[in-house]
Amino acid sequence: AQKVTQAQTEISVVEKEDVTLDCVYETRDTTYYLFWYKQPPSGELVFLIRRNSFDEQNEISGRYSWNFQKSTSSFNFTITASQVVDSAVYFCALKRAGTALIFGKGTTLSVSS
Amino acid sequence: DVKVTQSSRYLVKRTGEKVFLECVQDMDHENMFWYRQDPGLGLRLIYFSYDVKMKEKGDIPEGYSVSREKKERFSLILESASTNQTSMYLCASSFGMELGDQPQHFGDGTRLSIL
User: Fold this and answer.
1) Are B50 and B56 in contact (CB under 8 A)?
2) Which of A84, B15, B78, B89 has the most Cβ atoms closer than 10 angstroms to its Cβ?
3) 3-state secondary structure of B10
4) Which residue of B has its CA nearest to A103?
C-alpha cells in the first residue's frame, strides 16, 4: 500500500526562523515521484517541486530546500528565514508512474511577524 | 501559464439535488482529476480520466460520477447530493505519461455546501 505521512499538523514560527516540514512515505515501487504543493489561504494548490525516485540530490530554490532520503523514506522541506507570506498549508504527495497523486494530510504553517 | 478553471468558487445546494461541478483546462492536458479536501483528511481522489470518455475510480467514488466528453472539460456529478458531500472540491490536470510524469496543476476549488 502507498501512504504519505505528514506528522506535523500545525507549526507556528516567528518571521526569520527556519522551519522544516516532515514527509515520510511508504511504497513498494522502485519508480515513483514525490511532490510538494503549497495551498495559500486563497485555496489554489501551487506546485513547488517534483522528485523522482532515482534522483536523491537535494535541491535548493531560494529560501526553499528539499532533502530526499530513500534510506529513511523521507522527503523533507525546509524554509529558511521564513516570511509571513509563507503561511499556508503544505502538502507532500506520492505518485506511481501513470497514476494519480496520494496526498498527505498537510501541515499548516503559520508565520507571525 | 496553465489555467485550470472551475465554474464556481462557492455553491450551495439542497439535499437530493443533482449537482454538476465543471472544470476546464486550457493546456491540452490528457489527464484530469477530481479531489475533495476535508479538514484533517487532506485531499482524496474521487475520479480521474486519462483520455476523452475514459474514467477511473479513485479512492472515494461512491455517490459521484464523472463525464469527459471533450479533452478540455471534466465534470463531476453528485447524483443525489447529501450533507456528507459538503466539502471543497479541487480539479487538476496534467500531461500524459508520454511526456514523463508531469506535475498536476490545480484549479481554485469549489466550496460546496449541501443543506
Assistant:
1) yes
2) B89
3) strand
4) B43
CA distance B79 to chain A (A): 23
Question: Per the CB < 8 Å rule, is B42 touching A105?
Answer: yes
- In the prediction, which pLDDT does A99 show? 72
The candidate with the shortest Cα–Cα distance to B59, out of B46, B72, B43, B42, is B46
In this structure, which amino acid lies at residue B16?
G
Nearest CA in chain B to A40: B108
Mapped onto helix, strand or coil, the DSSP state of residue A86 is helix
By C-alpha distance, which of A34, A102, A29, A7 is closest to B59? Answer: A102
- Taking 50 as the threshold, does the pLDDT of residue B99 lie above it? no
- Stretches where chain A sits below pLDDT 50 are none
DSSP 8-state secondary structure symbol assigned to residue A43:
-
| B19-66: pLDDT as tens digits | 999 999 999 999 999 999 998 888 999 999 988 988 999 989 999 999
Element spanning A25, H or E: strand A24-26
Residue A71: strand, helix, or coil = helix
The pLDDT tens digits of the residues spanning A72-103 come to 999 999 999 999 999 999 999 998 766 778 99
* B14 neighbors B115 (Cβ within 8 angstroms): yes
Strands A107-112, A10-14: pairing is parallel
Looking at chain A, how many residues does it have? 113
